[in-house]
Amino acid sequence: MPFTFHTHSGQFCKHASGDLESVVKKAVSRGMLVLGLSEHVPRSRPQDLYPEEAGMTPSDLSTVFSEYVSEAQRLREKYSGQIEILIGAETEHITRESLEETKQLREKYRLDYVVGSLHHIDGMPLDFSKPLYEEIVEHFGGNRKMVFQRYFEQQFELLQELQPEVIGHFDLVRIFHPYNEGVEDPLATSNEVWQLAVRNIEYAIGYGAIFEINSRAWKKGLRDAYPQRDLLGEILARGGRVTISDDSHGEQDLCMYYDRLLGYLREMGIDRLHYLGIKKKEAGGGVETRVLENATAHEFWSANGF
User: Fold this and answer.
1) In 3D, which of 198, 231, 197, 196 has the Cα closest to residue 212?
2) pLDDT tens digits for 37-83?
3) Which of 31, 115, 197, 277 has a CA 20 to 30 Å removed from the CA of 6?
4) How would you list the strands of the sheet with 166-167, edge to edge?
5) C-alpha–C-alpha distance, residues 41 and 249, integer Å
6) Angle CA(231)–CA(235)–CA(238) in degrees, nearest 5?
7) 287-293 and 272-278 as β-strands: parallel, antiparallel, unpaired?
8) pLDDT for 261-272, tens place per residue?
9) Which family does it belong to (predicted)?
10) How many domains does the chain have?
11) Range of the domain at 16
12) DSSP alpha helices (H): ranges in 210-294?
């Protein structure tokens, strides 16, 4: 019984593809019992729109998000006998104000959960493209250690303000780091950067977050899923709870690299996964955290050819 709590669709995200119902149908066909929907929260400043959103306004993004929630609610009801659907959102932390906007959005739409992800450093896009990533490096005078340091500082702000249930791609800052050019990883060479990451891990564990093991990292050419094995090992050593996500951007990505993910789980000695689910009405409703024991031996993997 695998799951994912990090998904997008082309219907509500310009760099994804297909419609949201196709994602749900694919999840049903793959035997998933729990599917978390997590379209991006809208950005409120015109300068934060991406090139793909040319011609749109922040107001348009807000309308799209409202339409997403309505469609997600419709699909949850339509497929209620086949799959459990949670309705959430993935964060944006561009300014301090954007965190407050996310709080208000969560309350307004009564979202089931939030995926806490950082996609910007000091307002500059981190993962949209390698050229934009390098602009961040240039902003810090070519000092990649400072880039990593600022990333974990802003991630900590996000964790403190929102306390998201799921931590999205914890070390996304590594996405375009030029390992193939022999540039050393600041997490490996700087104790200061490492301690900032550890502080974030400890804080997230302290309030009960779940860290996703995100398979999309392999699509970006990284050695491991997010988080990479050094940080994942640290999370596990400190008793952190983990789940799995594909960060799918359309139904074609659902369960992407889950065969490879199975091997990663086994290599890291992970046999217990945590996941979110809706409490029964008699239990008061809301969201609860569940545990899947013997995760790598579960019948889903063999039934779906992993």
Assistant:
1) 231
2) 999 999 999 999 998 999 999 999 999 999 999 999 999 999 999 99
3) 197
4) 3-4, 34-40, 84-90, 113-116, 166-167, 210-214, 241-245
5) 15
6) 135
7) antiparallel
8) 999 999 999 999
9) Belongs to the PHP hydrolase family. HisK subfamily.
10) 1
11) 3-303
12) 229-237, 258-267
